[in-house]
Amino acid sequence: xxxxxxxxxxxxxxxxxxxxxxxxxxxxxxxxxxxxxxxxxxxxxxxxxxxxxxxxxxxxxxxxxxxxxxxxxxxxxxxxxxxxxxxxxxxxxxxxxxxxxxxxxxxxxxxxxxxxxxxxxxxxxxxxxxxxxxxxxxxxxxxxxxxxxxxxxxxxxxxxxxxxxxxxxxxxxxxxxxxxxxxxxxxxxxxxxxxxxxxxxxxxxxxxxxxxxxxxxxxxxxxxxxxxxxxxxxxxxxxxxxxxxxxxxxxxxxxxxxxxxxxxxxxxxxxxxxxxxxxxxxxxxxxxxxxxxxxxx
Length: 297
Fold this sequence. Notes:
The protein has helices spanning 6-36, 40-67, 70-87, 89-104, 192-206, 208-214, 242-259; strands at 112-115, 118-125, 129-135, 144-152, 161-163, 178-186, 219-225, 228-237. By secondary structure, the chain is an alpha+beta fold. It folds into three domains: 3-87, no CATH class; 104-163, SH3 type barrels (Roll), CATH 2.30.30; 178-259, 2-Layer Sandwich (Alpha-Beta Plaits), CATH 3.30.70.100. The longest helix is centred in the N-terminal third of the chain and has 31 residues, at 6-36.
């Protein structure tokens, strides 16, 4: 007797369950995104897409439920799911990337990051893109190029992310400096102590603010190479100030080394010494005056 009403019953039950689920899930998502969505526009855009997707799926479920065929409902949902996955793969991946940002917070606005080989300062985060103020680009070093770069949020699943400002478990509270170095090549016969004094003094003077906050003084790491010694002066520097500090240290070290008569730059060279045995005559030499224009006779 009730068999002919199966479709109607299934349909009404589906509507009731879907409406309840929609209200509960929407409330939970809104509560979470209000705190984590970076800005209100992202929250509204996400909830609007969520509503459209949910309504589309709910209509398909209800239509199938009113037919009274449970098996048909499963087949229909699987078919619709595959079609949506194919048509909306890029937007869905971008939304998933944005959700990853919201939940895990690998970086935030104003952090300097490298994503997929692109370096820049994060100036905005939307559902589809991460907007970077590019650093470097067509020039060497780490100074702002003035170009904006849009990085799809889906890249977060397929590219390595470097965050200059990320706080690690070993970092102290407020850590905001990274390690950098300037390399100077000196000869073997240079005065090591004098070279170390000059490099440390220059680096300490230029990075005094970082030293006050971190308590870490510049230090030397050295290594041999075939023609001399690599002197590496290492120091802490703010990520956004790295290029200026590096350039200042190079300039002042150059000035100080020019004043010193104990430390010498090393460069690749070769000396050839020719020795003849005692009492042995030199090979015959052609007099310069006998050499005609254009070559030897």
